[in-house]
């Protein structure tokens, strides 16, 4: 058992990393609108960046790093339950990359996740990359 998991169990922490979790990142979230979410998912599936069956994921995130498209992680929004997510998009140009990194925006969540959580603007989150 890792030190993080031992501490999590001992302290009964509200958000514990999955057993096979990789590095943890903390920061802020932003969100996508409905049309960009739908269009981006369709495009990424058409070019093979995402699987056709996305039913095992709780949501989709965009990150600053385009090399992470298709990677998976667990996301906790405001200390809530862990959501299993896949990276479906990234900062497409230098201005967005700079905005995300300067403002510690670790991800932008898809439209449906934003609706489910009632997100409107920046909110704190934890992200555990799949190990």
Account of the 3D structure:
- With 131 residues, this protein is an alpha/beta fold.
- The protein has a single domain (15-130), classed as Barwin-like endoglucanases (Beta Barrel), CATH 2.40.40.
- Helices cover 29% and strands 34% of the residues.
- It has helices spanning 3-11, 34-46, 94-102, 111-117; strands at residues 21-31, 59-63, 72-77, 82-90, 105-109, 123-130.
- The protein has a 6-stranded mixed β-barrel.
- It is globular.
- Residues 1-7 have low confidence and may be disordered.
Annotation keywords:
alpha/beta, six-stranded mixed barrel, Barwin-like endoglucanases, 131 residues
How would a crystallographer describe the biggest sheet? 6 strands, mixed, barrel
Terminal Cα span: 14 Å
Whole-number count of domains: 1
Reading the helices and strands in chain order gives HEHEEEHEHE
- Percentage of residues in helical conformation: 25-40%
What is the CATH class? Mainly Beta
Count all strands and give the number: 6
Q: What is the general shape?
A: globular
Please name the CATH topology: Barwin-like endoglucanases
Strand content: 25-35%
User: For the largest beta sheet, what order do the strands appear in spatially?
Assistant: 1-5-2-4-3-6
Assembly status = single chain
Uncertain stretches: 1-7
Mean pLDDT: 86
CATH architecture: Beta Barrel
Number of helices: 4
Structural class: alpha/beta
Please identify which CATH superfamily we are dealing with: RlpA-like domain
């Amino acid at each position: 058992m890792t030190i993080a998991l031992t501490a999590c169990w001992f302290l009964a922490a509200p958000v514990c990393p999955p057993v096979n979790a990789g590095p943890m990142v903390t920061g802020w979230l932003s969100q996508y609108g409905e049309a960009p979410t739908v269009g981006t998912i369709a495009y990424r599936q058409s070019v093979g960046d995402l699987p056709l069956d996305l039913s095992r994921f709780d949501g989709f995130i965009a990150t600053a790093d385009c090399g992470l498209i298709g990677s998976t992680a667990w996301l906790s929004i405001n200390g809530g339950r862990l959501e299993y997510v896949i990276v479906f998009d990234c900062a497409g140009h230098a201005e967005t990359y700079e905005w995300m990194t300067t403002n510690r925006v670790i991800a932008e969540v898809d439209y449906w996740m934003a609706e489910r959580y009632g997100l409107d603007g920046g909110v704190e989150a934890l992200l555990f990359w799949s190990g």
